[in-house]
Write a structure and sequence with these properties.
By secondary structure, this protein is an all-alpha fold. Helix content is about 30%, strand content about 5%. It is built from five helices and two strands. Strands 1-2 form a two-stranded parallel ribbon. The protein starts with about 25 loop residues before the first helix and ends with a helix.
Length: about 150
């Protein structure tokens, strides 16, 4: 009688009147094949004298061994992405993501970018029709908010 279940697991003796769990050769063969596949899948040869080869194989796989097909490699720092544009889109990054910061066309504007200009009017900041459109101040708005300085 086989008494293994999710709650009982395996019984090794007749404790409490429960017969021991029968483990058939087929399951041992399956486990052996699986464990051998872990070792050989990591690129290492099987060694009957090495009781740590499964641990070594798992550590190599986790560390990013190149034999893990299709996995991004930590050392590549995302340079091994196949489609960088799609990856940026999937992350929700816009068109500015791949641009350098600078003060010229084709760059993301830096704080001292002349494209901001220093001759702002209050209507540049508060468009006509907004509740602040009648705001007046003798100072240049660019000086007040620190743009272009």
């Amino acid at each position: 009688m086989n008494n293994a279940s999710p709650s009982i697991r395996f019984s090794l003796d007749a404790y409490g009147g429960i017969s021991p769990t029968l483990l058939l050769a087929a399951i041992f063969n399956t486990w052996q094949r699986e464990l051998c596949n872990v070792v050989t899948g990591s690129g290492a040869p099987l060694d009957s004298a090495n009781d740590g080869q499964i641990l070594t194989a798992i550590q190599a796989i986790i560390a990013g061994d190149a034999s893990v097909s299709g996995a991004l490699q930590k050392a590549q720092n995302l340079a091994d992405l196949l489609d960088k544009a799609t990856s940026r889109a999937n992350l929700g990054l816009g068109d500015a993501a791949p641009l350098n910061v600078g003060t010229t066309a084709g760059t993301v504007a830096a704080g001292d970018d002349p494209r901001f200009g220093t001759n702002l009017t209050w209507n540049d900041i508060y468009p006509v029709g907004s509740e602040f459109s009648s705001y007046t101040d003798s100072r240049n708005p660019a000086d007040i908010i620190g743009v272009g300085t």
